[in-house]
Amino acid sequence: MALFQFDTAILLEKKWGVFVQPGFSTSNPMNASIVGCAEATGFVPVILLEAANNTGIRLDSSNSNCIVVGGDSDTGFLMAGDRLKYAILQGGEK
Questions:
Q1: Mind listing the pLDDT tens digit for each residue in 30-89?
Q2: Is 94 within a domain?
Q3: Per-residue pLDDT at 75
Q4: 45, 46, 73, 77: which has the fewest Cβ within 10 Å?
Q5: Number of domains within the chain
Q6: Is 52 a member of any domain?
Q7: Segments forming the whole domain that contains residue 29
């Protein structure tokens, strides 16, 4: 997951000049920001990484400013992350 976060942050900054602020969905030992789809806005969208039964990428059903990347395994996260990075490189919607 850390590699996905790093690569995606670089792509978003280079492609669109978007600064990425990492966060967590639960309390954490680093006291980093706690964010989730409920906090996503048009100005501050969220990409949420979560363990899932199926590997894929989707918009959150209750907040279209939140992209959910789900993986059913480490390999699943790599596949979903690569798909999202490919979409960014291809010029997917901002």
A1: 888 899 999 999 999 999 999 999 999 999 999 999 999 999 998 998 899 999 999 888
A2: no
A3: 92
A4: 73
A5: 1
A6: yes
A7: 2-89
